[in-house]
Design a protein that fits this description.
Layout (H helix, E strand, L loop, with lengths): L1 H20 L5 H10 L5 H14 L2 H27 L5 H4 L18 H16 L4 H17 L5 H26 L4
Helix pairs in contact: 3-4, 4-6, 4-8, 6-7, 6-8, 7-8
């Protein structure tokens, strides 16, 4: 019973993955997803946090500090989980997966790019809700790009989204409750 359920879930996930990855050869989508995916990478997320911490003041600096703490505390567990639960990337496990040249070779679960982007945007959204309309579609696009590029399963992206969001919310709550004086 348990094996059949797991098999059915995996088959569903593979179908969902393929429904995104099958569009790989479309020129405009290729351009979009190959570029947007980098916003969830280490260089972009760390650079945004450091810029805000060192080159802004007041609320933006507080947001930068919160985002940096969230990014740090979301990525330590991601690195650990990737080692404890080694899952092959879809392009290594599924036939006919479309993938760019020189794909990542570490483990798939969870998506580090998705975790990073959500851990950074959630404090922004909580401090400045008016940015939701811009930041949430960007973060969702980063998550979709990971499947589009053949690098992650939907569950990798979903767990990255949930974990990054949770850590972002927790860091926002701690910073606002204990370190920002009420007005």
């Amino acid at each position: 019973m348990k094996t059949k359920l797991m098999t059915n879930m995996y088959n569903f996930e593979c179908r969902l993955f393929r429904s995104v990855n099958r569009h790989f050869d479309q020129k405009m989508l290729n351009f979009y997803f190959r570029n947007i995916t980098h916003l969830g990478g280490a260089i972009s997320t760390i650079a945004v946090c450091l810029f805000l911490v060192f080159f802004t003041k007041d609320l933006l600096q507080i947001i930068g500090i919160t985002c940096a703490i969230s990014l740090l505390f979301s990525h330590l567990p991601v690195a650990l989980v990737k080692k404890l639960y080694p899952r092959k990337r879809p392009y290594l496990a599924l036939l006919e997966t479309k993938v760019p040249a020189n794909p990542l070779e570490d483990h798939s679960f969870p998506s580090g790019h998705t975790t990073a982007i959500f851990s950074v945007i959630i404090p922004f959204i909580l401090f400045m809700p008016q940015l939701t309309i811009i930041l949430l579609p960007i973060a969702i696009s980063v998550g979709l790009s990971r499947m589009y590029l053949g690098l992650h399963y939907p569950s990798d992206v979903l767990v990255g989204c949930l974990f990054g969001s949770s850590v972002g919310f927790l860091c926002y709550t701690i910073i606002t409750r204990f370190f920002i004086l009420p007005l």
